Amino acid sequence: MRLLKYIFCFLFFQIASVSFAQRSEPNLSIKAIDTTPLALILDSDQAYCSYLADRGRRNYFEGYPEYSRRAYDTLKLLIESCPNSITPSLGATWHAFGEIGTSVQDMSNDNNRWLELKDWLKKVLYLNTDTLYYCADANEMFYTFNYIVPGKGQDVNGIISLIDYLLTTNHCPELKKDLTDTRIYLRTRQIQKWQDTVKDSVSTPLDTTEL
Hints:
The protein has helices spanning about 5-10, 40, 45-60, 65-80, 95-105, 110-125, 130-140, 155-170, 175-195; strands at about 85, 90, 150, 155. By secondary structure, the chain is mostly helical.
């Protein structure tokens, strides 16, 4: 899980210039995927899932904005169509959540893309009842706070709200320690920043509500 990596990058680096996952050489099972007639590939549901995984990952590893958009769209379709599948190039399809998050980072500078991703992650959260799938989806939601809210700055309260939900529901028990430690760190840093910058604590009290 990349929870702490996402949050620390979110706090310490400029959002537009940070890449949260390192691309390595792909291991794709279908060659020349973009030129293979779709009719020759769609001979079974599993073949279709493998096709989407391979095509999405091929675009993902290109790393350019136009390819990142294609990867984003294709890997989202993979999750929607094959939430329970295992493919040769990706393994369990929930592994695609990480590549979807990196693709949305690279495909444009439009802040709305984060909100679009958040809405989509909520929509597909329960397509697979496996805990690993759920936690991979929920963990990727932290990625969707990688923007600056006009007039309010970074949405630290949004991150803490999500952490509180995961801790309360205990859907991801293996993340409990990381979530707890991160919540303490974020709130402490938020209070410290307010104390260092506030000029009138009465007129501008510390806001700990979700933005």
